[in-house]
User: Fold this.
Amino acid sequence: MISKIKKQIVFSGIQPSGNLHLGNYLGAIKQWIDMQQNYSCIFCIVDYHAITIHQDPKELKRRILEIAKIYLASGIDPKKSIIFQQSDIKEHTELAWILNCTARVADLDKMTQFKDKSGKNKESVSVGLYDYPVLMAADILIYGAQIIPVGEDQLQHVELARTIAKRFNSQFGNIFRIPEAQLQKQGARIMGLDDPIKKMSKSAVNTNNYIALNEKPEIARNKIMRAVTDSGGEIKYNSQSKPAISNLLTIYSLITNISIKELEKQYAGRGYGDFKRELAQVVETFLIGFQAKYNKISDKEVFDILKAGATKLEPIAQKIITNVKKNIGLS
Ligand code: AMP
Ligand code: TRP
Assistant:
């Protein structure tokens, strides 16, 4: 008899706070697509995380829909995976409060993303921005998620979720599963096209830094043609000595699924001009296909999928909260 093995739970999320770009797709969403075969996946639109920085209300509403459509157009299949909006399940914030009482100021003071995002304005940024890693821990722990696929910049936050879970378990009994981050090796960090030392970012001042997923394909083509290159004309991967061409090779490889070794062979003896022209074509073709899928998805379809997701998750979240409250003596 074939025994039915329970699939492990995967959880990840993206904030509806800006234009998603190729780095978000290749570094995060793309690795989720294949995971749907072997895991029970939950993909969240983390709107409560987004409001840690001021958002225009109309714009936020639009972006929530946009992220859901990006998930769907990328190949997240609502028949296999759950897609939902964080604020639809109030237990995330309820658990976050409880975990606030387990997390320590010393834990949060270590978070490099907070240091980067708050910069010189430490006194005037929101308390939410400081506390956001605890909400992220709640997102993960509330569903007993085991595997957390994220980009490199989120590793420290997943580590914090582990610390909080272990500390809580040792104080109040074994409630939480200890999650693990999963980093995609190649492409975990897609770098800026204008500066391959810094990661591709939606907040970059120079719009040539990134290619948005809703970029006009011909503009994306120009951005690739204009991307900075390294000295020496050889198409060879070396992230230390040739960061620019290594980044372009990574993008090429991840979109086409052709290995970097294979690409190096293909372009041996050929120059940057040829390589960039062909990569520009690859990116353009990818965006045309992606956007065609995106434009077919209606708002109504998205609302229905998000509501169905929340309906499936609510009982799981409620059950954990009930147990947590019991164990800490609240009920
Ligand atoms: P953010 O856009 O910062 O909210 O990030 C959303 C997801 O995309 C996270 O899992 C990030 O780690 C990932 N991500 C953001 N920027 C990049 C990048 N340049 N390269 C790879 N992954 C990224
Ligand atoms: N903080 C993550 C980011 O900015 C998004 C996020 C929120 C997340 N909750 C999560 C990612 C839980 C993984 C698991 O990218």
In short: The domain at 2-183+299-328 is CATH 3.40.50.620 (Rossmann fold). The first helix runs from residue 22 to 38. The first strand starts at residue 9 and ends at 14. Residues 289 and 318 are 40 Å apart (CA to CA).
